[in-house]
Structure formats: C-alpha cells, structure tokens
Amino acid sequence: MTADSSVQLISFLAGKTPEAILGTPESEWVDFKGVSPEGPYNLGTEKGKFELAKDVAAFANAGGGLIVCGFKATRRPAELHEVAVKSTPFARKLVNVSSYKDVITEYVRPLVKVNYYWHDHPDDDPAATGSYFVIEVAALPESDRWALVTRGLNEDGKLIKGSWAIPIRNGDTTTYLSPDDAYRLLNDGLRGERQIDVDLAAADGAVWDLRMPESQFEQLLEVRRRGLLSALPQARSSAPGRAAPSGPGEQPALDMARESAARLQFALAEFVESAGTGSVLFKDTRSPEQYVAEVDAYVEACREQVPSALFAAEARRCRPLRLQLENDSAVMLRQVEVIVRLSPAHTAKLTTASDDVLEDHAGIAWPTAPVPYGKKTYLSSLSSAAEPPMAPRLSGMFGVMHTHRQVPKRPEIRASADALIIRFPSVDVRPYSGASLDPITVYGRSLAGDTAVVLWTATCTNLDGRAEGDLSVSVQHADVPLSVE
Q: How far apart are CA 56 and CA 61, in angstroms?
C-alpha cells in the first residue's frame, strides 16, 4: 500500500502504520527526508538553513505540500522517482521547532503559512523507536506569488547577501525560476498584465468518419417491412356458394361492422376496468389496409431515427479523443476552463466505462413496430392496446431513491446549426505541467479530408486574458456494419 494524497499519508502516520507509506514516490506534494545526527536539517550551517528555506518556498510556489522527516527515499533502477524505502524514526530532541520557524521567517518572503506535527512510531516495534516530523506548507495565494529565498548559496555552501532564488517544486525535484521568467514576471507585474499562457494538444485518439451504405440500409428496412406484412392473410378464392363482396353497398357495410365491433370492444374494456379486472384480451379489428398504412409509417420512422442510433452505437467502438492542456508558465493556474468548437458536421458523446458495445443493429432501440396483424391485444381504459397492463411503479422512498445518486461533473456538449461546442470541467494546472481533459468521442458522417480543425479557448480565475488557438486532429475512417436479416 502507498499514500495517494497528503490526507492519506497523515492518516497512516496518525494510525501508527508507517509501513503503509513505504513505496510512496516523491512528487509535487510530498518530499521525504532522512535524518542525520544533527536532525533532518542541520541548522547549525548556512547550507542547512538555505535547504529548509528552499524546500518550504518551493512547496508554497507549487500548490502546497508535505516535508516528511523520518523516511529514507531512494530512486530504484526501474522507477522514475525516488520512493520511500525505509522508515527512520528519530528522537524529538533533534528538532528545535522554534529554530525552524526563525529560519523560515528570516529567509522566506512573503510570509508562508507552515504547520508542524509530530507522530510517534508504534510502541510495539522492537526494531525502531522515535517519532516522525511533518512540515505542512500551505500554497501561497495568487496575489502573493512568488515566494523567494532572500539569500543565494555559493559553491562553498555559504549564503550570499544581495542574491535571491525562487524555487519551484517540479515533480519529485526542486527547480528554480529562470532569470528570463523572473524578468518577464517582473515586467508583467509592473504593467499589470499577468496573462494565461496555455496550449492544447491531442494526446490520443482521433475524430472518426463513419460511413454506412444507403442501399444496404434500405435493404434492411425492406426485410423488416416484408416481415411485418407477412402477418397479413394470403389472398384466396371465395368459398363455394359465398361470393366476395362486390356490390356497391357491401364493402361500406363491412367497414361499419368493423367500427361497431371496435366500439363494443372498447366499451367492454371500460366495463371490465371498472369492475377491477384491469384488462381484457380482444381480437384485432384493423383492416388489412389500415395495417399496411401502419407498417409504412413504421418504416418511415425507422428511416428517420435509426441511422443516428446506428452511428452512435458504432462510435462506442471508436477510440475517444483525449486532449491535454499544458501550462507553459511559472504560474499556478486556477479553475482553467477549456471550450472547443468544431464544425456542425460533427457529433460528440461522452465516454464512460459502462458503454455497451453493440454487436450489430439488432441491439439498437428501433421505433415500436405495429402489433402483427390478427394478433389479440390487451385493451383497457388505462393501458395500451398493444401491451398488457404495466406493473405499478414504486412510490415513497424506494421509488425516488435513484434521484439522489450523485453524478460527477462531466463535459457539456451543445450542438447547433453553427457549430459543435464542448465545454470541459474546470481544472487546476501546476506551473510547467499538464492536465488531461475528459475523453470525448467525436465523429461525423462521410467527413471530407483526413484532418479536422478544433478551435479552442481557455480562461482561468486567477489571471486575466484568454488563450486561444486551433488544433488539427487526424480523422480515422470506419464503416458502420450492417447485417441484413
């Protein structure tokens, strides 16, 4: 087990389970310190004072973090970062907290909020005794950035008056703001022009061009139409002695008889419903002509609705587009909101781990087909003529429980006649680092070309201005598979 956050790491120490921290890599939020005979920092030397001030200022500039004293960290050959490999608790007398506070007060500007905590090693461990010392550094407000160390350090480990350094925690290491960046920040501050500086790149995936042969889809509709029409009675010759209705008044008389029978069935259904039985089964009263009209209307509804469903189902198979936001500045960006815009020929859908991949068109939600001709149906005053009565819905707590499920914030997708617009949830981005945006599946029908242009804008809450640009994303082509039944 390793610690994934500062809260979890502190909980391991408070619960006297320091072994759970072993294997945790150093990162932008945690730094492990071994302990020498003089303590985690040798404040009797100028180098020790500089190291403490540097580490505190670096975390303050990078969003805050923990300096955990009492763990040895080493970079193993197969790992990218130093990780905690051994717990080394020590005696509390090796740390004079007042001296730590004095060094930070003298050498760090502006004033940084720092908390100090002791956590004891388990008493039942015969191999080691002592405690762990944690220095918790809060992030500086944007209005107070940047924290700097008021002294430099020469090669002999001596502090240099008149020099200064701006350290930044970058992953598991500490770097320094370059002179060029310091100059730019100084000029921007004098002019009041601290502008957002970000870029957007496609980290993975593509825009998908989906195609479906229209003739094959029409063939599929025809198969369904013939299947429904097969329920009609086959034409046959009249029985001996019984001539088919051919007189001018016989067919209207048959139609009136069907209508009267239908009224009688619905009246009886209402009677049965009022008697408490709920439903009754009746014969089909439709004429063949009425049934054919229903089938034609169903096929037309399929022609209008099903292609979109087929394209959406095929899009689930496609690798989603993953965009990466890069902070190119030395400023911590707060609540960066990215909005991308594509042409209206594109469609987008959210990517979830629970997406069902449909094997073929059989799994698509087709429009409701007419009840086959001649099939008995359920009729009641409260239920559909094509379906038996539904079970009553749950009421009370169990009926509304699902409405309280918390849904995580996801990208917002809005399509119009002018553009497809995707608004991503806001993210914080550390200096000179990146953040992955939520994956989105973007596709279109019969798109032209091998690249799609993505226009984007980005804003944040702690800097002025707006970053914008355009991004070319590759277009991959795929066919929507259809199997004609």
A: 9
- CATH 3.30.950 positions along the chain are 6-177
CB 137 within 8 A of CB 64: yes
Go through the chain and tell me how many residues it has.
Answer: 485
Residue 150 pLDDT: 92
Q: Which CATH number is correct for 6-177, 2.60.40, 1.10.3470, 3.30.950, 2.50.20?
A: 3.30.950
| pTM listed for this prediction | 0.51
Residue with token string 């030397």: 45
Q: What pairing do the DSSP bridges indicate for beta strands 83-87 and 108-109? A: unpaired
Token reading at 59:
């975390």
Nearest to 46 by CA among 154, 129, 144, 147: 154
Residue 335 zone, left/alpha/beta (φ > 0; ψ -120 to 50; rest): left
SS3 per residue for 255-299: HHHHHHHHHHHHHHHHHHHHCCCCCEEECCCCCHHHHHHHHHHHH
Contacts of 213 (CB under 8 A, 6+ apart): 482
Q: What is the pLDDT of residues 113-124, one digit of tens each?
A: 999 999 999 999
41 burial via Cβ count (<10 Å: 0-12, 13-18, 19+)? buried
